[in-house]
Design a protein that fits this description.
A hairpin with a 2-residue loop joins strand 9 and strand 10. This protein has a single domain, classed as 3-Layer(aba) Sandwich (Protein Transport Mog1p, Chain A), CATH 3.40.1000. By secondary structure, it is an alpha+beta fold. It is built from five helices and ten strands, in the order αααβββββαβββββα. Helix 1 crosses helix 5. The longest helix has 23 residues. The strands form two sheets. An eight-stranded antiparallel beta sheet has the order 1-4-5-10-9-8-7-6, sandwiched between helices. Strands 2-3 form a two-stranded antiparallel sheet.
Amino acid sequence: MRRGLTMAGALSGALASMLTLGGCGSGGDTGAKPKPGPSAPVSAAAPSPSASTAPGALPTAYTFTPDPDRVPHTPDQAQRLTRAAALDPDSWSAGMAAHDPYESAGDWPVLSADCVWSRAGLPDGVLDSYTRKIDVPAKEGKGRLLGSVTLTVHRDAAAADRDMQETVQQSFRCPDQDLGGGQFLLGLLSMHQPKESVLNADASMFESGKFTSPESGGPQGYVWTKSRIGPVVMALSVKGAHGYETRDLLKVAAEGAAKALYRVELELKN
């Protein structure tokens, strides 16, 4: 177990580093409101003046505070935010494609006592939850990477933080999980990122393990990251395929997470 935790920690650190780099001039975003300024980068970690000391410097802390007038308080307001901030294939990365089915909304994942996932209605305190599935198509002898990004709006930041805390406990309770349809996650390890290393959200966590399905050709890598900005939680996963290493999955996940968090921030800023 110690070796597994060490490996997960290394992967978590690698993802944190990529998120920081991806948040500084990563570009390629579409459909979001431009950030004020003549040459502002598309960045999930766009530093505020108090977060850096020199032009172009990486942020040293996350200091963003949502505008209270922009924070959703009703399901309709939450739905407008999740649809506006959601990634599409082009805004995640060039060459990605919509999965079939592409979108789902208005339900909630539930992990049973025997570690099987199912769907239920939104719990009290969740205003909206919206998912898009976006893949890297099979090419050059490699299989199809399966990507997913979910935006969830809670009634307040405290409820969103509880969502983050509960997620880590799920992997300890169920390191092997049944997704249904012959899909399984195996050997999961989750951990919270140290607050001082999170530069583009109020809190972040990371999960890694293996994914298998009837089409996967055996166990493949799996990475998942979840972050919170105020009452909004962004969760993004990448399920591996033949021809990809874990570092490849981390790169795809980091690019998508950086852009998704930036788009959430845009929706919450004055």
